[in-house]
Amino acid sequence: PTDLQRLFRLRDGVAAVVFGASTFRAWPSVRRGTDPQAVPPVHALLTRDWELDPAAPMFRDWDPAWPPILVVSPNAPPGVFTSSPIRWVPTPAAGGAVETVDALRHALEALGVRRALVEGGGHVVDLFLQARALHEAYLTLTPWLIGGSDTPALLG
CA 21, CA 113: separation in Å to the nearest integer? Predict the structure, then answer.
């Protein structure tokens, strides 16, 4: 609980939060921060596919006055997402970490975001490490595993 509160406080101090689709699937309500009345930061969700639940609380309950949800993916969103708060950030299908992180960075900068909190499992963190785009790192070990089947592990 203490680490979770620390995470929410970190979210309160940033303009954007970046996480992966596996994290979203495990926690589809993805909280905003410590103040439920505050406008949340821009949420950026990285995914290689669009196997996302359009009825998830984050999509269903997103106030149109809040910043958009960016979904960074090489695949276009299905029609079910066309009336949602999602903005698709296309990446090259064969693009690597640098291209993915650059596409996200340009989309965030267009919204006036210069710093983002990268929350993620092994895949998301690995992308940012490969792109040399992490400036600070906080490591929190949790009692559960979140991430895809090919997610790089912390150990092993």
Answer: 21
pTM for this entry: 0.83
pLDDT tens profile 27-83? 777 766 777 777 888 999 999 888 888 888 888 888 888 898 999 999 888 888 877
SS3 (DSSP) at 147: coil
Between the CA of residue 81 and those of 30, 37, 60, 90, 142, what are the distances in Å?
A: 18, 25, 11, 15, 32
**DSSP code per residue over 1-48:** -HHHHHHHHHHHT-SEEEEEHHHHHHSTT----S-TTSPPPEEEEE-S
CA–chain centroid gap for 86, Å, is 12
